[in-house]
Amino acid sequence: MSRPDSLEPFAAHVTVDGGRAAEGPAPLVTRFLEDIARRCEEAGSTLIGHIKCHVETEGVGFHCNLTSRRGGARRAGAAPHILTAPPAASSGLRLEMDLAVLVYGLERETIDRAVRQALADVFQADGGEWTLEASAGTHHH
Hints:
The chain is α+β, with helices and mostly antiparallel strands. The protein is built from 3 helices and 7 strands; from the N terminus they run E-E-H-E-E-E-H-E-H-E. Helix 1 packs antiparallel against helix 3.
């Protein structure tokens, strides 16, 4: 359901484990945020406020955020070669992510559904598994 002026922040901790990713964690996370934004717009979001995350993978941390679909997701943090290299075949992809989704016009349940669908499409397609623990608290932007 869409409510044009509402802002119901969504925050979650996501764990991704396994999978045979052909690309490194940063391109996958970038695609994940862009997929969330697309799904939120398709569900009736009136404005993408901010979709952002902090990711830890292989002892390295980085940030990724998106404020518009036109501009796409941007990342900062560790050296690019670490973030874009595919994970070792023996261990597959492993990451811990704190995610915040601030979009106007959608109820929390709709955002939750968009995030879960994006997780399945981006991280599960290659055999990976993910878990999501949504936070009931508020997000300080």
